[in-house]
Amino acid sequence: MSNDEIFAAAYREHYWAVSRYVARRLDGRTSEVEEVVAEVFTVAWRRRADLPAAPLPWLYGVARNCLANAVRGYGRRRRLVDRLGNDETAHGRQIVDSPDTEAPGAWVHEALNRLSPADREVLRLTAWEELAVEEVAVALGCGRRAAAMRLHRARRRLRAEIDRMSPPTVSKERSHG
Amino acid sequence: MADELELLRRANPVPVDGPHFGDGPLDHHAERHLNRLLHERPSPVRRRTRLAWGLAATTVVAALVSALLFTGQTTAPAIAAPRPLLVRADSTPVSLETLAERARAAAADGAPKLRKGTHVQAWSMGMSDDKPPITLPEERIVRWHADDSHTEIVVATDPRHPGRPVLSGEGELVEDGHVLSRQTYPPSWSDAPPQSPPPTDVTRLRAYLQEAGYSKTPLNIGELLDAVASLLDTWTLGARESATLARLLADTEGLRPLGQVTDRLGRRGQAYVYDGPGARRMLIMDPVTGAVLGLETTFTKAEPEYGVKAGDVMSYSAWMR
Questions:
Q1: Structural domain span for residue A10
Q2: Alpha helices of B191-283 — where are they, by DSSP H?
Q3: Residues of A in contact with B57 (CB under 8 A)
Q4: CB distance A127–B30 less than 8 Å?
Q5: Is ipTM > 0.85 here?
Q6: Which of A20, A87, A112 is facing B8, going by the closest CB pair?
Q7: Which has more confidence, B50 or A122?
Q8: Does the predicted TM-score (pTM) go above 0.90?
Q9: pLDDT at B295 over 50
Q10: Residue B56 banded pLDDT, cuts 50, 70, 90
Q11: Among the three residues A35, A62, A94, which one is the final residue of a domain in this structure?
């Protein structure tokens, strides 16, 4: 297969996974996701000669950089959209609660938001994109050992934040086991 | 208690099986972008002029406007922000129910027919970080060819100010009628809404619009109006499709008849509004055929920090045959 064909296959296979990656980091603002994803694949197209055999973690890495630009460029518009409150995700409607009533959704997000951007990203890549440590390393552009170390530390810090802010019911549950 | 990764997993805001971005075939936007990458020399991603609400950030343009305002250009450019449409005080509102009935009667002979492609004049507000917002007027024509390829022509023009220079989205002041882009796209194999023909059955049209709006759950009225705009940005509806759409809108709660307006192309229409948080959407429909003529979005409260006043027009699209 030519580079172009390999790229087209990766595009078809991973378009929606990349869209979810972007949506998760734009709080699901659907109106901006498509645009950022288009940029991700435009950058990926230019670098298609570098596309690895397992392209998804690499595409996440490209998306991470595009998002950094998007967040800088769109900050103003997003603030206005937030202020007008017409964006469903601004009200957290897309947060998916777990089946039990002690759903962690919102407060877990809050705990996550107290961490550094680097900690947040390694945790999200692991929990939401379900990447293995080797894949996290590709997405972050670091070695496997460094990725494992970052994840280990980030988990510890998230645990500490969760313990600090857990609702009483959860703490109680925890003390039982 | 579950470990921290498990808790985080459960709090995934966009799960694979959620209402948005689930795995499946590419939608037409994705197909179109892939086509473009494979068959054309990719250019930097052009920000859509009409974003969530047509708020296209164009710092360069805003800077240019300031330059124009202070350098005494001899020919006044057509940069004045359009005022919102005025509803005639003495007009009697026509209910959507009545309009849907008229549309059904008008569609009896099946003419005019549905046509793929569109002809739309749009005004949309552009924002920048430190300059007042400005309005970009564009006319867009999309024509489909026998081999399923299509050509899109975008022209900078403001029909309210014929002959005057116009600001373009690329940050230049251009002559009225200047062609901003002319692109021919290869045949697309996408058959997802809104690329597939709109159905002439209300239930199916509702499902079609939901799919066009990338949603797996029923659309709220704001999302529905967005989906209608994306339909009309792709198809020029025939009488039957317009009648179906009018019926769908009549069956949708939340659109309030307001009375008669004259749209920015001088056409008479009936206005129906939906007041959302922070913004008002006004749908303008042909009083005889029930065809959607335009959609206007205006701010309903001032946002001084953004240079926006209550009543400022965020975006306006007028569709033509």
A1: 1-94
A2: 202-212, 221-232, 239-250
A3: 73-74, 76-77
A4: no
A5: no
A6: A112
A7: A122
A8: no
A9: yes
A10: very low
A11: A94
